[in-house]
UniProtKB/TrEMBL annotation:
Highest taxon of the lineage: Eukaryota
Disordered as annotated region, ranges: 355-379
Protein name: Solute carrier family 35 member F6
Source organism (scientific name): Oryzias javanicus
Lineage: Eukaryota, Metazoa, Chordata, Craniata, Vertebrata
Ribosomal protein keyword on record: no
Keyword flag Hydrolase: no
Amino acid sequence: MAWTKYQLFLAGLMLTTGSINTLSAKWADLFSAKGCHDNPEHDFSHPFVQAVGMFLGEFSCLVVFYILLFHDKRRPEPRMNPGQSFNPLLFFPPAMCDMTATSIMYVALNMTSASSFQMLRGSVIIFTGLLSVAFLGRRLAPSQWIGIFVTILGLVVVGLADFVSGHKDDTHKLSDVITGDLLIIMAQIIVSVQMVLEEKFVYKHDVHPLRAVGTEGFFGFVVLTLLLIPMYFIHVGSFSNNPRQVLEDALDAFCQIGHKPLILLALLGNTVSIAFFNFAGISVTKEISATTRMVLDSLRTLVIWVVSLALSWEQFHGLQVLGFLVLLLGTALYNGLHRPLLARIPWCAERMNRGEEEGSGGERDRLLDNGRAQTAEDT
């Protein structure tokens, strides 16, 4: 069935805004400017300020939800389902997971390349699959287990590519690249915990997706904004790249933005893109399919990689090509993208109909869709 113009628009919007989200965050990291009190020019290294901006973008989804709801109620026959009433505090634990994972990923993005950052985020399916078996009682199909092992292999290849490039690239130190990659994978463990919490405690309620994203964004924005105050006084030594060597110096970030307003453009790009990315992702799942959303998310990695190479933000490494293809294969197997091909083979179709995918397909898609990776993607 051919896509409508609206479906094509949604797919393009998701791919574009998802790519801008990572690229704008990396663009901000590449700036350098003077800080407060005439501090010498230094790199813009403020991951927690960037994370606050990301949550502001998610929070805006809640505003959009109420605008759409208000507009719908004025119709003679309202069509929008606002969902049942719920306790907003249900979203607090997953929001804290989101906040922690996002902050870690922004720290990691400062240490490694944008393409590796996006590729390594694919490791979320490993931990999501394992945790869903352990805590949700889900049974994974054989193809999903194969997908997990293939993804692990892909991560090893991407890690080797970063290890090799770390010896040749002066942009990042080898130790920073390895640390950044490990932090990204650590963050995916937290993201998978967030997904399981949402599936077990939140999404059994009928909550509108925009309202869910916006509520988590609200908690993340408020809590992380308040945490910027103690972070201003916590000294972490050489681990921090800001002049005062504290965990986060928000005042220094604002001073740098004042000296170089282009940084603000990069931060706004990150904030606005995450809002549109969430809207587009939810709409793609509703209007087309969850599988299409997974495919577009994989294409986003390719776009980020190509743009980074075109802008000379990183160098081309053949191992990354292999790593990307292996990760793509692992994601495809885990998400069942091979099933339409196998369905054409009679004996495979018969086995699939016998229940190989019982208890895994629809629920798994729902689990992954509720997790964003990709919001936060993600980030």
